[in-house]
Amino acid sequence: MESNSKYHQAWNNRGLILSEWKRFEEALTCFDKAIEFNLGDHKAWYNRGVTLGHLGRESEELASLDTALSIQPD
Predict the structure, then answer these.
(1) Domain-wise residue ranges, the chain
(2) Tens-place pLDDT, residues 20-48
(3) Which residue among 29, 36, 50, 51 has the highest number of C-beta atoms inside a 10 angstrom radius?
């Protein structure tokens, strides 16, 4: 799927709101959708990792955070 800034940002923002409400499964779906629209969205990868941590899925959390760092090392 082609990168579309509006779509991936909207999905990422929706995920952030759902995370604030502690609706982590729904937030994870949003971050996955943001990544689907833009594989290079380091913020969505980071937010996905944090959300996976809240869900107790540590190995997946680390993989997502590693991906975020590989995209945006600083």
Answers:
(1) 5-71
(2) 999 999 999 999 999 999 999 999 999 99
(3) 51
